[in-house]
Specification:
Strand order of the largest sheet: 7-4-5-6-9-8
Number of helices: 12
CATH class of the largest domain: Alpha Beta
Number of strands: 9
Distance between the termini: 7 Å
Radius of gyration: 20 Å
Protein name: Polymerase nucleotidyl transferase domain-containing protein
Strand content: 5-15%
Helix content: 40-55%
CATH superfamily of the largest domain: Beta Polymerase, domain 2
Organism: Candidatus Gottesmanbacteria bacterium GW2011_GWA2_47_9
Keywords: Membrane, Transmembrane, Transmembrane helix
Largest sheet: 6 strands, mixed
Length: 306
Amino acid sequence: MKRLSLRDGIITTVAYADIFGYPLTLEELAMWFPLKRSHLAQQGETLKRLKRSRVAGVDYYGLHSVSQLVSVRHKREIWSKKKMEFAKRIGWWFRFVPTISLVGVTGGLAMANAKKQDDIDLFFVTKKGTLWVSRLVTTLIAELLGVRRRPKDTKVMNKVCLNMFMAEDAAALPPKERDLFAAHEVLQMVPLWERDGTYQKFLAANSWVKKFLPNAWKEKYEMINVQCTMRGIRVFLDIVHFTLRIIEPIARFVQLWYMRNRRTNEVISGSIIRFHPTDARVWVRDALGARLARYNIPLDKVFCGS
């Protein structure tokens, strides 16, 4: 991002948010700005060229007419608040799985930009050597609670999508996936709870995101305030953890066997399990490219950071 001009940085920030119909406040623009925050003050003229709407004393910026989008954003914030409370209640049950170190919310809900009919995307970090057994147990819990989103479900409002598991000893995203999209996904994730400082370790392992979003990384890393949980029954959890780790190979075999004829766009390795019906990275990149082309900003320089 070093060769990105200040003007292009502002346009890129607003354009990325525009993909999701999300007008930005000046504070949010500064947070997701791809260069040092202080540089933003030097671009008053560029800000004036953006579309702006003032609502309740707050300015919102976008590429196009903003007033209607602000109204939609406020409605989604109301829906998101209710969904987040629901996610916290569901997430509480996963604390009884000792092989899970962190549970977080991703997707539109993480940005308080969820639609009323949206499901809830959850992200998990697991203890070393327990990736598959952790997924198995969390799936069973979601099934028992009646909230699990199944692949063929059409009515998914407030269903829980267990769409990503990462092992804590390999929490850094692979180099080939390190781009603007992934940087946003890492920093937008909202942890519901953690154990043993896992969220801070996750951010530290993915410090490469500073290349794309230095202000957001600094703010997230320095303002960590996630509570550790279940300390009172630590001995019991350690025993269960030991037992689950023993059956990890069986859990892996059973799930891979079940998935053998159902695979689509899943990403599966020794340290990550990711389930997405469609590859969001592709359509986000294309949508951003279409917007940046109007301002003669090369997509590759922005998206890949080259």
